[in-house]
């Protein structure tokens, strides 16, 4: 019979129950209810499934073995040993492993002790202990990197960021530029998917359409040479016919029909177009060209619809 199944083993003075967890670490009512539900299911399987029962028994014995091998009275000595300032440890992991081997437990069991998880020391005492070690043995590599980054010029930082982008981005510069030029005036999922089929990344694998979308929206170091905002505005003109004119009059309408209507796939919307709008005070005062003659000029070549309610709106399409 295993010694762990002997009740006398657990009555030994060598093994003391672990201290109660801090209130902040106790389960909430909701979490407790959830675990109780799981426990009921587990209990049913435990009673009806022999294999499951054996697994639970073995796991419980193993857990008991790990937990009970470190007496609570050793917690303080272990913590003091780990944070001892007399000598610098080789590494955090090495020090944990050294103590864990002595007790025959896993590293994480020791780690919980040295970070004061069970609060066997007061928080202030533990903080002083840790701070004393870190003050005496600061990470040389960490500090040198901090100094290096702190003293970098803006140009050096920009170059560093660029080098990181080049190294980490799966799409090379030439491919990214080609993708941007193809998608800058399309900007739809269908277009992104179509473009993605034409290109491969650095490893020769297909590029997902979401990566194409990111490149077209400027999320690649190679697109810094493009005016992303201007291209988005241009796309909006083409796709939706949206363009904001200020104080529309006849010349503005003429310019819009000649220069923007050929690029618009939908409807171009402009403010003005009614006779009452052509007669407003500022149009007469500054002798601005009227809009209606322009609409009549193009009425046979383009589709024009005027919503007469003041100040009126004109819809123009090919």
Give a concise summary.
The chain is mainly α. The protein has three domains: 16-136, no CATH class; 169-226, no CATH class; 241-317, no CATH class. The chain has helices at residues 7-10, 29-48, 50-68, 75-82, 92-103, 107-114, 123-136, 140-150, 154-168, 173-183, 189-196, 209-216, 228-240, 250-259, 275-278, 281-285, 292-298; strands at residues 268-271, 303-307, 313-317.
Instruction: Return residue spans where pLDDT drops below 50 for at least 5 consecutive residues.
Output: 14-19, 21-25
- Order of H and E elements: HHHHHHHHHHHHHHEHHHEE
Q: How big is the Rg?
A: 37 Å
Query: How many domains is the backbone divided into?
Result: 3
Number of helices: 17
Tell me the distance between the termini.
Answer: 92 Å
Largest sheet strand order:
1-3-2
Beta-strand content estimate: under 5%
Helix amount: 55-70%
- Could you give the count of β-strands? 3
The main β sheet shows up as: 3 strands, antiparallel
- Summing up helix and strand content along with how strands pair, one would put the structural category as mainly alpha
Overall average residue pLDDT: 77
What is the overall silhouette?
elongated
